[in-house]
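Page 42, continued from yesterday. The earlier attempt failed because a stray header line got pasted into the input along with the sequence. Redoing it now with the clean sequence only.
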Amino acid sequence: MWLTVNGRRRRIAGDPGTPLLWILRDQLGLKGTKYGCGTGVCGACTVHLDGKPIRSCVVPLKDVEEKSVTTIEGLAAASPHRLLDAWIDEQVPQCGYCQPGMIMTAAPLLSGNATPTDAEITAALNGVLCRCGTYQRVRKAIHRAAAGSTREHPELAHPRASLRPDEASAAKTVFQPSPWVRIDADGVVTVLIDRTEMGQGVVTSLATLVAEELEVDLAQVRTEFAPAATVYANPFFGVQVTGGSTSVSGSWGQLRKAGAVAREMLIAAAAATWGVPAGECRAEHGTVVHRASNRRLDYGSLSARAATLKPPRRVALKEPGSFRLIGHSQPRLEIPAHVAGATVFGTDLALPDMLVAVVKRPPRFEAAVKGIDAARAKAVRGVRDIFRIEGGVAIVADDAWAAFQAHDLLDVSWTGPTGKALDQGMIRAQFQAAARRKGRVELERGDVDAALKRAHTLLEVEYEMPFLAHAALEPVNCTAYVHSGGCDVWVPTQAQTATQEEAARATGLPKKAVRVHTTFVGGGFGRKLDTDFVGQAVAISKRLRRPVQLLWSREDDVRHDRYRPAHYARMRGGLDADGGLIGWHQRLVGPPLALDCIDVPYEIRNFRDERIQKESRVPTGAWRSVGAGQNAFVIESFVDELAHAAGADPLLFRLGLLKRAPRHRGVLELAAEKAGWAKPLADDRYRGVAVYFSFGSWVAEIAEISIDESGAVRAHRVVCAVDCGIAVNPDTVAAQVEGAVAFGLTAALKSAVTVEGGGVLESGFRDYPLLAYSEMPEVEVHIVKSAEAPGGIGEPGVPPIAPAVGNAVFAATGRRIRRLPIRADDLR
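This time it went through. Structure tokens are written below.
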């Protein structure tokens, strides 16, 4: 069969029923086209067929014979790069996984319509999902491209494909003053990134910390992911891990010092070369300058001599007033590769002699394999082996499509669990019952019970939150190779130390024999802190002694997640006759991850925080913002209820209770000013407000919504004020908050995991929907100028959005939202 791909006629071998996606990825090695769902829902696999966009995961090879296919690689090779240039100008991508699908969908729109309207852009792009919420930047990029106001980006001609160690550069290294910085004889500065890049921009932000002190421009910097090693442990956790929005805050002093140490050693090397005092020299744009004589030496020429010097124990760091890079928006280093489809995510890895594996997993949480009938599955061409592993049955094949076909034909019988199957109603009843009994008191002041007894107005309400899936666009995956020299693991992980430990456990090798190669991550959100998929990949490779890529289907990803736990809260609050808040009692129920990140900043004389740890037998894990997402909804919804009961404006009511919380007040006042809180809205629009502190940052959000005749809630505008200390890269801060709003709106308005019959009902993006392009509000982000050390930013924008929307719904309908997601039936 013949096919023209990116202008080149190619002979294709394969079953005519094979989806085009797998021909492009596995046979032609065109990895820019992504696997996201396999059902044509997410749009990550979009390519052009004779110039028109199609979903390659559902178009069989027989339907494209003798036709012309263009992938993102082909589009990127064309010149000029008007659309790709616009994507870079607007700094559209976050994790980048969905962006080839976005661009391949936008290109035909522009080719047929020189000046598309917002409505036309929405109609064209609405079927391409972005978990990171880049939608409003996508729209701006399309308008920029249409207007012809883009800048040329020559780096698109040779985008850096990944952050793998550059062996050629490492071989030339002559100066490595710390584990984070290398400088070779050519003057190339390499910064080793010891955190995971999953869209939060840490590659650029961490490189900026080094570059600022080293006095080099970011254009002079190369980056690569660091290996798993003790020296790269996150100082907040003591292990190498990316979580809790700690990448920048944890590296703030560490990486700046690494840059400063290198700078001072290079200055000392130059001073020794010239025979002058080091105090007469300064570092400037990758060179050392002697002030008196204006002599200049570049870092490359100084690297060999600097390597002979002893690193200083103490160095002076720059004052914020002299920052050239920190605090100023910098183009992200990895974005050109994202938009060109050149980034290597975990699913994109290709090794010589590599096999592909999938796992048949049990339909219930606590089931185990009873028996296997593999006859039909083994008959699939390309299938190599089928065998039991921990957690299911592995199917190993030459390529992904053969493995997925065999998966569907494999007949497995399952055992257990005994007793009544776990379901949603059972879990809810258990949580409700737990909320009726006393728990562990975490904090108490005053006499809450007496205050509530004498209250003029008493509110007693309960809130509940569902299980939620992570639903990153890149499904869980891991590539492992167990060989005579040890074990290598290539994985989109947030937890390098745990990955190394899990691989060592699965192989029986010492940790030092396990090498972890971190790839880019197509959305993490906490799911890739777990290592269940690592152990499976390693076990399969160990058996076969071949490189094996373990790939999860979208159904696997949704039904075998580590879910955000369900959560229940019983709240009591009392007001005096003047509407003053005199008592607050909260009793929170759930697993430990649901009982953290609790922030009640309000001045309340009589206060009790009570918690009841309750497990549900559903596997749970960290989910973007962890317990802050649940608890912000409870706390900020309840304070709004109290404000209404007091007959007070909800903003002024909060401000009156925040006299000793200046940073909460600061973001609330800024958000209110920018949102025009005191100004009337159109008749069909309503506002709600929320403020929350989490992960070292303060965020206030004001949501403007409408509700249609069917009861569907639509968020039109969200105004956010953020106090995250020094914003290392302000545009990245804004992008993260924009994405957090989209992420939180999915939880508030659309998605929930349903437990029934001992397992999860939802299986993909059709029944676990994400916020779509047409549903994205305009998000405005206003950053408080600060000289304080940086806080986190990846997660703090998530917690306030659900209560802000819920409070706006009350303003519109008079109905309180006490469970999520918000359903139309709740408003009737």
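Notes: The longest helix spans residues 247-274.
Reminder to self: strip header lines before submitting.
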